[in-house]
Design goal:
Shape: globular
Keywords: Cell inner membrane, Cell membrane, Membrane, Transmembrane, Transmembrane helix, Transport
Organism: Marinobacter profundi
Order of helices and strands: HHHHHHHHHHHHHHHHHH
Strand content: under 5%
CATH architecture: Up-down Bundle
InterPro entries: HcaT-like, MFS_assoc_dom, MFS_trans_sf
Protein name: MFS transporter
Subcellular location: Cell inner membrane
Distance between the termini: 26 Å
Helix content: over 70%
Radius of gyration: 20 Å
CATH topology: Growth Hormone, Chain: A
CATH class: Mainly Alpha
């Protein structure tokens, strides 16, 4: 029962991502927005992660009421998204997306803490819980892609409404916490953690990783459409990447027994660099494109699983929530937003392939930084 309750919200949260990431840029293109406007609107999904997780993570750490905050974020975020149906134009839609994502981006960092604390000593089951998020993503990508073969792309917001309902219902199925405040952490300890060279390297690695994903999350669907792939084929290719991610989560516990987290991180960074080069140059060759999508297991799955261990190891019990929020904000937030904007300029000025080459350059820098500064985290307390 606990396993089902924990998995349920992951399923619906990532199902919403499965409906947004592959198709939202196509929806915006259909609304007549320019590539730079599309990049800006897509960047809001990442941009609010810079502030929102830190705000909500701090509230969660101070009050202990993470479940209530998750419920508040689910309900309020869903209500804010309803502004899309007003078709408010670029600036109005920008405000709607900023409001919606500010509350929506509060959910996952808080829920990661809830999940890990609920699992307790059974943290090795995290991958099996988290993989249901990947299942939700695949189901939404395939389902929405299939429906969009039959209905116009402007109907996408309506297709997302059942997913929002699933998020809200799932949030209210989580067991409430007691809300007991923990004793304050020693003064200055968070600053000491953040100034540690290995922690700096960890955050810089993840920042560059998300910069490199800017072209993928913003223009991959448009890139595929330019090469003649249908919306269903685009959805299936997105799903293939997440299937590879699921496979990685299932075997991750074996990998960490055979290799250090540093070795896994460096290998995953190198494979991600190769992935962006293949997409930039060989999109028309379907077997190569399929292989590139299978590398999503490295570029997201392996590096996220490793990062969870880093956060636990370096930030410990007192600063776990803030560490998770900083990971989300500084990497997915700042890195993702910067990557979206940079890719927008590259696509507007050159081509979609140039944006993926930009991602490859970012990964080369990340690989150099990690080789020099990334060390295994201490044992999580």
């Amino acid at each position: 029962m606990i396993y089902w309750r924990l998995s349920n919200l992951y399923f619906w949260f990532f199902a919403l991502l499965g409906g947004l990431l592959p198709y939202w840029s196509l929806y915006l293109e259909g609304q007549g927005f320019s590539y730079l406007q599309i990049a800006t609107l897509m960047a809001t999904i990442q941009l609010t992660k810079i502030v929102a997780p830190s705000v909500w993570g701090h509230l969660g750490d101070r009050t202990g009421q993470r479940v209530r905050l998750v419920r508040f974020g689910a309900v309020t975020g869903s209500l804010c998204f309803a502004g899309v149906f007003l078709e408010p134009g670029f600036y109005g839609l920008l405000l709607v997306m900023l409001a919606f994502t500010f509350f929506w981006n509060a959910i996952l960092p808080l829920y990661e803490v809830i999940t890990l604390r609920t699992l307790g000593r059974r943290k090795d089951r995290y991958g099996k819980v988290r993989l249901w998020g990947s299942v939700g993503f695949i189901g939404a990508v395939a389902g929405v892609g299939g429906v969009l073969e039959l209905v116009p792309i402007r109907g996408l917001p309506w297709l997302l409404l059942p997913v929002f309902a699933g998020i809200v219902v799932s949030a209210f199925l989580i067991r409430s916490e007691r809300g007991v405040r923990k004793p304050p952490a020693p003064s200055g300890s968070l600053r000491q953690i953040l100034s540690h060279p290995a922690v700096v390297a960890f955050f810089l690695m993840n920042f560059l990783l998300q910069v490199s994903h800017g072209a993928y999350y913003t223009f991959f669907s448009i890139h595929l459409e330019l090469y003649g792939y249908s919306k269903l084929a685009i959805g299936l290719l997105w799903s293939l990447g997440v299937l590879a991610e699921i496979g990685l989560f299932l075997v991750m516990h074996r990998l960490v027994r055979r290799f250090t987290v540093r070795q896994i991180a460096l290998a995953a960074l190198a494979l991600t660099l190769i992935r962006w080069i293949l997409i930039a140059e060989l999109t028309a060759v379907l077997p190569v494109l399929i292989f590139a999508q299978l590398l999503h297991a490295a570029s997201y799955g392996a590096l996220h699983a490793v990062s969870v261990q880093y956060i636990q190891g370096y930030f410990g019990q007192h600063h776990h929530g803030q560490g998770q929020a900083l990971y989300s904000g500084l990497t997915f937030g700042a890195g993702g937003a910067a990557g979206a904007w940079i890719s927008g300029f590259l696509v507007e000025g050159i081509s979609t392939s140039a944006a993926f080459w930009g991602g490859a350059v970012a990964m080369a820098v990340a690989l150099a930084v990690s080789w020099r500064g990334l060390n295994p985290p201490p044992q999580a307390s």
